[in-house]
Amino acid sequence: MRDNRRPRLPRLSIRSLPGLLAALLLPLGLLTPAAAAASPPDATAAADPVRIMPLGDSITGSPGCWRALLWNRLQGAGHTGIDFVGTLPPQGCGTAHDGDNEGHGGELVTNVASQGLLPARLAATRPDIVVMHFGTNDAWSNIAPDRILAAYDTLLAQMRESNPDMRVLVAQLIPMNPATCAACGRRVVDLNARIPAWAAGASTDRSPVVVVDQWTGFDTATDTYDGVHPGASGDEKIAARWFPALAAQLENTPGDPGDPGDPGDPTLTCTASFRSVSVWQGGYQAEVTVRNTSAAPVRGWTVTLRPADGARVTQVWNGALKPAADGTATVADAGWNGALAPGASTAFGLIAATTAGPAAPAATADCAATPAS
Fold first, then answer.
1. Is pLDDT of 255 > 60?
2. Within 10 A of 266 (CB to CB), how many other CB atoms are there?
3. Rounded to whole angstroms, how far apart are CA atoms 47 and 26?
4. May I ask the CATH class of domain 50-251?
5. Using CA atoms, how far apart are residues 220 and 2, in angstroms rounded to an integer?
6. Is the pLDDT of residue 160 over 50?
7. Domain boundaries, the chain
8. Tens of pLDDT along 71-117?
9. Which of 93, 221, 263, 335 could connect to 68 by a Cys-Cys bridge, CB 3.0–4.6 Å?
10. CA separation (Å) from 317 to 6, 330, 337?
11. How confident is the model at residue 172, as a pLDDT?
């Protein structure tokens, strides 16, 4: 049977017309080569956005409203060339933001590793940076820190297989105190204590692993609605902790044209992680780990420590203490431990006096870094 239909011509987008006209007119001498070269460039030539994957469980994804706060804080700081990615869609929060994420409620990081679930998700989203808060359900399930960190190893290898230049921000988990799991809080503390050393061993110059302390200063009584999942104040704290570390990575990641400042002069940031060592009536011993989370070396650091429950720092080693009348303690490096390469860490110890009974000590800790030159 003869087909009398007219052949279908390929559709031309408006964007392709200048290039087509140049190709037609140039052989006829109606357009000079210079004019042809001056045709507007294709919009696809613009730099691709930096793709950021929020990875974890329900704390990240259900609804994970800290992501909305973080997105808008980054936008407000000028980091507009970014794209939050994930195979899961936005899940509410009532705030306009890029809600794509990889926060699967109920997932264990050990299961994601053993079942090989991450590679397909990476292939579908192609992230440049992963922001990972993962392991809460594993702690609830009484899975040993060794197994959880082995799962981290597996996921990190899969991330680097997807992108050899992958940058990973890994959280020391927010505290957990559910009514049905009295031991869960201690398990999170045990895991968090192991994460900095794991990250230091896993980090490379090409694919840095940066620890972000989400535990210090987070109160399950006021910052969660069930002892596990963050409420409004918890979301604010989580976003505030992610922001400086993520912004520092964006300052040094190609493809984020909205970044403020000179890419050759990166923002210097550090984190300070508070950990209780021992407690007695009227006082406690603690350790603070300082980590350089920027992509440039630092020659010094200063930690501002605000102990909870009226405690006061009375003694410090591996640091220089300057107490304040309001109980705030400023601790500077001791000189020999001030220089830190990107991703490197050091620690100082302290003794604090308190009028409260023996309880779990807590403190908020902020860190400021000094440029290496």
1. no
2. 19
3. 29
4. alpha beta
5. 76
6. yes
7. 50-251, 270-371
8. 999 999 899 999 999 999 988 888 889 999 999 999 999 999 999 99
9. 93
10. 86, 13, 11
11. 93
